[in-house]
Specification:
about 220 residues
Length: about 220
């Protein structure tokens, strides 16, 4: 989660305004806000009480993500899935810790954004290594892992480039949270290839949707 100046709850900052008709997007944001209220705030209070800083939370999430990538590369998918859960939890809490401690900063936002890409990329690259290993080689999931990796990076890049131009770039149905959930389910259930199919299809389409939304919104 980004912890930049003026940041509010990750869920509140992304929720669409002025929409009267309920949609899948509305449901997604509502679920996220409930999770923030029931889990994020109490967890932030506990971590803050024991002196856990936002930077440490971000780095802990990255470390767990890289470890998940290692276990994915060795075929230990359940262990990888559990580590991905841990990485996602710390990613959820770092912004809350920053707001609670009054240490919201652009440096923190940069660290968090880069850390997210490292964590997500490590897992997908770990799967790519696993499916290209001579003992476990399988061409289809290897290709899917590569496409999912490229697509995930493009979703994030389109947003980063849009924000650099003063735009929003927040459209898209396969955001970091959805990709994280699909990855966790795939690893824990052993349905890794179906999860890779979902990611390989959804991430390029989501990047295209995000790009097209900004392209249509601005004519210059």
């Amino acid at each position: 989660m980004r912890w930049a100046p003026g940041a509010v709850s990750r869920w509140e900052s992304r929720r669409p305004r002025g929409r009267s008709v309920a949609s899948l997007q509305d449901l997604r944001y509502a679920l996220r806000e409930r999770l923030a209220r029931w889990f994020e705030r109490p967890a932030v209070a506990v971590l803050g009480a024991i002196g856990f800083t936002p930077g440490r939370a971000t780095l802990a999430g990255v470390a767990l993500g890289v470890a998940a990538g290692y276990f994915a590369a060795t075929g230990e998918f359940v262990a990888a899935g559990l580590l991905v859960i841990g990485s996602g939890v710390f990613d959820m809490l770092d912004g809350g810790l920053a707001r609670r401690s009054g240490t919201v900063s652009r440096r923190g936002a940069l660290l968090d954004s880069v850390g997210d890409r490292v964590s997500e990329g490590a897992v997908l690259l770990g799967l790519l290594v696993y499916y290209t290993d001579p003992d476990t080689s399988d061409r289809a999931p290897a290709i899917l892992a590569f496409v999912a990796f490229a697509g995930s990076m493009m979703v994030s890049y389109v947003r980063a480039r849009a924000e650099g131009l003063g735009l929003k770039g927040t459209a898209g149905f396969a955001t970091r949270t959805e990709r994280w959930a699909v990855t966790v389910v795939g690893l824990l259930t052993g349905w890794v290839e179906p999860a890779l199919w979902v990611l390989a299809v959804a991430t390029p389409l989501s990047a295209l949707q995000r790009f097209w939304a900004e392209w249509r919104r601005h004519d210059s």
